[in-house]
């Protein structure tokens, strides 16, 4: 029997250059809060019945045209009301049974309309005479995907609105270690680092790793776990996450072997049932990767920034101080710092719109992430993983950037992984 023919053009293997060969190594100054220039702006005039202008640049040339339009609009309203009054008077002459009350109501309506029109014109003039409020214009990037059914551009806005609501329901308790009797934060650090190593060996999807850590944290938020059972919780959580995210997940025997045979198959299956019942089978966790893909669209899918951002997201998994950070904000923080590291320091209007976070909102978490990167590494799995060529040596490049810009903190050398 002849082998099946290949459908479509043959796949080509693209060799990616190392990050250090593409990006200049010119040192950058430490991050400071800045405000990007207002380039493309829209003007919104508020007050009375004034018109609302969107996506229009306000200049001296068209400022007079805008005022003339408001004046014409107000005069049109007055003319219409005068015609209405005239019609009312003619009707009054024809029908003598019209009560004086209806006439008074009509007169009061005319007065309110004329006053509203006058107020609108006055308010518009005062807005133009003062400094006009402007908003940065963002570009609709979803309109280019109308013909791509995989991008579901008709529903993408509603989908991410739902994910933003869902992430609030799947947040763990950031202080759950306070009621754990035998556990400490450093034990969680070691467990997550081990899970990253297992995840890398099995070549699982990034979403599987983030869901695994979320299951562990949510379970520990509601149940007290002994130290001897912590590893069982971790490996079983990855077993559950792989079932949920992977197309063809590893078997339970693979996880038993990778855990050095510390637990039997029966123990893992029993732990799986207990964890799922505790979490009420709620595994719909919006991964930071979902939001990172959305944010990267506003960054023109820049591959270097996106790879570094993925590394920074896994770094945040290790630090318990980011447990209170929603996945959407974590993705925006990672992309912001990744772009800054490679020299793209402007957080422009598209990124603000599609990430839903401004530069001011991200700055505290960015400082926290830099503080983690400045400290000597206690675990190595994430760093080793992203020091590989297939990840364009992202961890090495970030560490070198930290060493150049924050020399006051002694960092672990990166020579061992070059």
From TrEMBL:
Residues 286-400 form the Cyclin C-terminal domain. GO terms for biological process: cell division. Keywords: Cell cycle, Cell division, Cyclin. Residues 193-277, 290-371 form the Cyclin-like domain. Belongs to the cyclin family. This is 3046_t:CDS:1. It comes from Ambispora gerdemannii.
């Amino acid at each position: 029997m002849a082998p099946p023919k290949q459908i479509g053009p043959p796949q080509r293997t693209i060799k990616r250059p190392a990050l250090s060969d593409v990006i200049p190594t010119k040192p950058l100054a430490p991050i400071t809060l800045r405000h990007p220039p207002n380039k493309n702006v829209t003007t919104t005039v508020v007050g009375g019945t004034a018109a609302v202008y969107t996506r229009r640049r306000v200049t001296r040339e068209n400022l007079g045209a805008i005022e003339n339009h408001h004046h014409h609009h107000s005069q049109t309203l007055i003319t219409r009301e005068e015609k209405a009054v005239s019609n009312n008077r003619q009707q009054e002459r024809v029908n003598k049974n019209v009560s004086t009350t209806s006439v008074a109501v009509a007169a009061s309506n005319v007065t309110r309309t004329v006053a509203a029109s006058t107020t609108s014109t006055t308010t518009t003039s005062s807005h133009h005479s003062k400094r006009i409020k402007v908003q940065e214009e963002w570009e609709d990037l979803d309109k280019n995907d109308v013909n791509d059914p995989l991008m579901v551009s008709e529903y993408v806005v509603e989908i991410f609105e739902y994910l933003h609501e869902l992430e609030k329901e799947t947040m763990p308790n950031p202080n759950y270690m306070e009621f754990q009797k035998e556990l400490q934060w450093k034990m969680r650090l070691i467990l997550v680092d081990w899970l990253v190593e297992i995840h890398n060996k099995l070549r699982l999807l990034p979403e599987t790793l983030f869901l695994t850590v979320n299951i562990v944290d949510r379970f520990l938020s509601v149940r007290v776990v002994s130290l001897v059972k912590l590893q069982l919780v971790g490996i079983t959580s990855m077993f559950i996450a792989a079932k949920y995210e992977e197309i063809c997940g590893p078997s339970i025997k693979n996880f038993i072997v990778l855990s050095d045979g510390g637990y039997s198959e029966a123990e893992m299956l029993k732990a799986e049932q207990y964890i799922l019942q505790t979490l009420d089978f709620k595994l719909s966790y919006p991964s930071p990767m979902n939001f990172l893909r959305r944010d990267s669209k506003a960054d023109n899918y820049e591959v270097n920034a996106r790879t570094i951002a993925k590394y920074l997201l896994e770094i945040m998994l290790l630090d318990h101080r980011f447990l209170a950070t929603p996945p959407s904000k974590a993705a925006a923080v990672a992309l912001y710092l990744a772009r800054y590291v490679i020299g793209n320091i402007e957080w422009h209007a598209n990124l603000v719109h599609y990430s839903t976070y401004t530069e001011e909102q991200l700055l505290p978490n960015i400082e926290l992430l830099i503080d983690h990167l400045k400290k000597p590494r206690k675990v190595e799995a994430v760093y080793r993983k992203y020091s590989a060529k297939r990840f364009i040596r992202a961890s090495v490049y970030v560490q070198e950037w930290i060493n150049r810009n924050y020399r006051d903190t002694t960092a672990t050398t990166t020579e061992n992984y070059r």
